[in-house]
Amino acid sequence: MPLITFHKNGQTFQDEVKAGSNLVVRAGIKQYPYPHLTYQCGMGKCATCACRIIAGAENLPPPNWKEKKQLGDRLDQGYRLACQLWLEHDLELEQIPLAAAPAVSAA
Ligand code: FES
After folding, report:
1. In what order do the strands lie in the sheet with 3-8?
2. CA-to-CA distance for 67 and 83, rounded, in angstroms?
3. Is 1's C-beta closer than 6 angstroms to any atom of ligand 1?
4. Could you tell me the pTM of the whole model?
5. Could you read off the pLDDT of 75-90 as tens digits, one per residue?
6. Is residue 5 predicted with pLDDT exceeding 50?
7. Do 64 and 27 meet the contact criterion of CB atoms below 8 Å apart?
């Protein structure tokens, strides 16, 4: 089962999820990473669920057209839309609201 490490507001949360899980769907049914993951539409339209991938990006599929449209240059900084990802492998990610995210990654 994928181990998901989630960072937000200086805190770190970690739990295993079933293979094929979507973190926004899980939050919608009040499972980890609920209540910490912020999201809205669940359909790739609002970018509220945007997270920066810290580790495990190599195991994710390429960004889909919704992610490209919503994230633009942020894709190059490692951002993905959590609602568009179905997780099969361990992943470490951080949620910073896009409005508050630095223009250039400091990593
Ligand atoms: S929740 Fe709206 S884009 Fe993911």
Report:
1. 11-16, 3-8, 91-94, 50-55, 79-81
2. 10
3. no
4. 0.92
5. 999 999 999 999 999 9
6. yes
7. no
Q: Is the pLDDT of residue 32 over 60?
A: yes
Q: Which of 22, 24, 37, 80 to mutate to test the pocket of ligand 1 (most atoms within 8 A of CB)?
A: 24
Q: Which residue range(s) make up the domain with 50?
A: 3-97
Domains contained in the chain, number: 1
The reply to whether 104 falls in a domain is: no
CATH of the domain at 42: 3.10.20.30
* Torsion over CA: 21, 11, 39, 27 (sign): positive
Nearest to 2 by CA among 33, 35, 29, 46: 33
- Is 106 contained in some domain? no
